[in-house]
Amino acid sequence: MSELDLSGCVGFLWDEGNADKNWEGHRVTQFECEQIFFNQPLIVSSDDAHSQKEPRFYALGRTDAERMLFVAFTVRKNLIRAISARDMRRREREEYKTHED
């Protein structure tokens, strides 16, 4: 897993490019995307295959309502910018469950 330090991040970046596409494509709200970064466990790894223009990462996490999400994101300055979000796939859920208490 990546050693990305998110402690310097102070918020989230939502713009025309990502504000509505997660809702339209996967029925994931902006609020749900943000929630997973505050709940444990949060599994973060680099996404080298999609890091051509800027470093990209993905997170596996859980919302307050226990929805298990995969969120692809990047960090711009000190803001987390969600690129895409969806429900975890079976293999991702299995990986996530190995990190639960």
Mean pLDDT: 91
Helices, by number, come to 3
Gyration radius (Cα, Å) is: 13 Å
Task: Please give the order of strands in the largest beta sheet.
Answer: 1-5-4-3-2
Number of domains: 1
- Spell the H/E element sequence: EHHEEEEH
Polypeptide structure, described:
This protein is of the alpha+beta class and 101 residues long. It has one domain. Helices cover 20% and strands 30% of the residues. The chain is built from 3 helices and 5 strands; from the N terminus they run E-H-H-E-E-E-E-H. It has helices at 21-26, 30-35, 90-97, and strands at 11-12, 43-46, 57-62, 68-76, 79-87. The chain has a 5-stranded mixed β-sheet. The chain is globular. It starts with 10 loop residues before the first strand and ends with a helix.
Describe how the helices and strands are arranged:
Elements lengths: L10 E2 L8 H6 L3 H6 L7 E4 L10 E6 L5 E9 L2 E9 L2 H8 L4
Parallel strand pairs: 1-5
Antiparallel strand pairs: 2-3, 3-4, 4-5
